[in-house]
Amino acid sequence: MSVKEAKVLEREPAPTHIEHEGILGEQFETLDQQNNAYLIGMWAFIVQEVLFLGAIFAAYGIYRLKYLHEFTLAHKELDWVVGGLNTLVLLASSYTMARAVRAAMQNKHGRQMLYLTFTLLFASVFMFNKYIEYSKKYEHHLIPGRGYDAHTIVEHAEHKELLEPLPDGNYKLKLETEKIVTPEEFKQRTQLFLGFYFILTGLHGLHVLVGMTVIGVLVGRAYIDYKKRKPVADYMPVEMVGLYWHFVDIVWIFIYPLLYLIGR
Amino acid sequence: MASYTTHHEEGHEHHLVPVRVYSWTLVALLVLLIVTVGAGFIPMPIWLGTVVALAIAMVKTYLVMAYFMHVKFSGKLIWLFAAAGFFWLVIMVIFAYADYITRPWEPVPGF
Questions:
Q1: What residues of B are in contact with residue A176 (Cβ under 8 Å)?
Q2: Cβ–Cβ contact B102 with A under 8 A
Q3: ipTM above 0.85 for this complex
Q4: A58 — alpha (psi -120 to 50), left (phi > 0) or beta?
Q5: Which of A78, A94, A191, B72 is the most buried (most CB within 10 A)?
Q6: pLDDT for A23 beyond 70
């Protein structure tokens, strides 16, 4: 033991070894230090996620500026009610997650398990709604790719008098300003919107699925701690998964208005 | 755990965030959800609708980060990380948009 280490031990009272047994890593001096290291790592990961998803949002914004008419007409195919319901469900899941973290800090394992299960339940509702939404897009041939067909968008827009087929076969798009496009251009540009829709919601859905898997593991851990009546368990895994979950919620907070709502 | 306390006191009891803070955060988020849906249907210029939607989303993000993600109760380093993410995002968006928006001003055909 070096002199420095000896001094540290002398100065601080012995840490509560019984309580923190199996929790404090040997590379850390105190639990506080360990927890802060965990948190910084998790935040670094989240910042990376912000930039990675932010780039897709930025690209979406640039193409939306360029093809405002086409994007606005295509976005009317998204179901704002289901999207809103999913926002509600995700916000509720964030709340139950925050409560699960709180219960974990108090070492109330049963309650922690309960709140985590609620979070899982809300996440399942979210994924089920996504399944319904994606199926509808499939039925309407709105999945980007070979089978893509903009007929549904054309029909709906025509019905709302936002699109007028011209005698020469082109479409006149009528929003705040008018714009004339060929059917092929209209098809490609609405397809681009749906591409952004599937990339953004797909990546987000993937994050939800990953979150659900990890929360499932946490439920199992909480159950074991509950059965063993463990007096003190490390709450940091729950806290970090919570940070991830709230971040996924924030991503949806942006997806919902930007894709489903604006220009409705 | 100093990271979660508003009062930095030593001791074994964690200074937990009161449940009502979480509950009120949820209520505020749900109200803002209704506001953002409502704003989507109020007739207004599309650019304004986008600005309003983004502003509401940012307020919601602040609430989630500050209270659910405990940034408000955390140390300065966590705050710095959260701010850094936002800062770099703003750099990426502003520089990218500055490029695309100014391209039509150039005499050469482009994007």
A1: 45-46
A2: no
A3: yes
A4: alpha
A5: A94
A6: yes
Alpha carbon A219 to its chain centroid, in Å, reads: 20
How many CB atoms within 10 Å of residue A202?
A: 12
Contact residues for A236 (Cβ-Cβ < 8 A; gap 6+):
A34, A35, A38
pLDDT score of B9 = 39
Spatial neighbors of A71 by CB under 8 A, at least 6 apart, are A63, A64, A189, A190, A192, A193
Which one of B29, B47, B62, B86 makes the best mutation probe of the A interface by having the most chain A beta carbons within 10 Å? B29
Exposure on the CB side of residue B22, measured as CA atoms within 13 A:
21
How buried is A236 (Cβ within 10 angstroms: 0-12 exposed, 13-18 middle, 19+ buried)? buried
- Among candidates A88, A258, A262 on the partner chain, residue whose Cβ is nearest the Cβ of B46: A262
Take residue B70 and report the two structure tokens written for it. 């405990």
Judging contacts by C-beta atoms under 8 Å, the chain A residues touching residue B40 are: 80, 257, 260-262, 264
pLDDT tens-digit readout, A99-117: 999 999 999 999 999 999 9
Provide, as residue numbers in chain A, all residues whose Cβ is less than 8 Å from the Cβ of B3.
32, 35-36, 39
Q: Does the pLDDT of residue A178 top 70, yes or no?
A: yes
Q: Which residues contact A221 (CB under 8 A, 6 or more apart)?
A: A233, A237
Strand order in the sheet with A171-174: A163-165, A171-174, A178-181
Strands (E), chain A: 163-165, 171-174, 178-181
**Would you call B103 an interface residue with chain A, using a CB distance cutoff of 8 Å?**
no
CB pair distance less than 8 Å for A58 and B23:
no
Chain B residue numbers with beta carbons less than 8 Å from the beta carbon of A62 are 96-97, 100
Q: What span, in angstroms and rounded, lies between the C-alpha atoms of A113 and A100?
A: 7
B21 touches chain A (CB under 8 A): no
- Residue B34 burial (10 A CB sphere; 0-12, 13-18, 19+): exposed
On chain B, the residues whose CB falls within 8 A of the CB of A243 are: 69
The first and second tokens of residue A144, run together, are: 């980007």
Residues comprising chain B, all counted: 111
User: pTM (2 decimals)?
Assistant: 0.88
As beta bridge partners, residue A173 has A163, A179
Question: Token pair for residue B31?
Answer: 């109200």
Does the pLDDT at position A1 exceed 60?
A: no
Q: Does A21 contact chain B (CB < 8 Å)?
A: no
